[in-house]
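Thread: quick sanity check before group meeting

JM: Hey all, I'm pulling together slides for Thursday and realized we never actually wrote out the predicted structure for the chain we discussed last week. Dropping the sequence here so it's in one place. If anyone has concerns about the input, flag it before I start.
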Amino acid sequence: MANWDESTGLGIPDDSLLSDKELARCTRADTGTPRTPIPTQMVSNGEYMPLPQSEKQKRVEARVNELADEASRKLGVSRRSFLTGTGGMAASFLAMNEVFGDFFDINASGLLIPEAYAQAGPPRDLFVFDDQLHMVRGSRFNAAAPLRALSQGPTAGGPSNPVNPTGLKDEHGDTWGVWNRALVGLPNSPENFLITQFIKDVFLDSQVNVAC
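JM (edit): ok, ran it. Output follows.
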């Protein structure tokens, strides 16, 4: 990170922000070793070092493997095959309930009977929008404000679209349309990009479930 140039984004390879020493401490996630259906430890995307596996995470992993061994023998299938099905998910939820508390609606019958697992699951026609968020540091308002203005439209202020100086038209024929009508008329200010505002918008004021 000492070679990183914040103004240009240049100085280190794009494929990883980790040093060679840090990379040497990591184990590849695609080693081919059968893993639990739900990860039991952090992995790195190449930006930061992952935290070590906690004792509770180790207990969950061990318990999932115990349940998988027992259930796969009863069903007469391979351990790998069991873990890739609904039984593997049931084992993961049961193990996490044992270690962290009763957070998941699951019972032991879901290990062996797919129909029992499905009874406590979401409806088949449930719509899930799986998205990834990025936030801009509050100190980078000058970089963030044009993006906010782009989605807000002309009420963000300014004579023209800040990211479309040549006046290209979008699919609606607009050079500066409104992407998010909920933003129309609101101030485009530095306070919008504070971490406290991000937490409020995403975790308190929105219908969001977080997958860890």
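AS: nice. The chain has a mean pLDDT of 85. Residues 70 and 79 are 9 Å apart (CA to CA).
JM: adding both to the slides.
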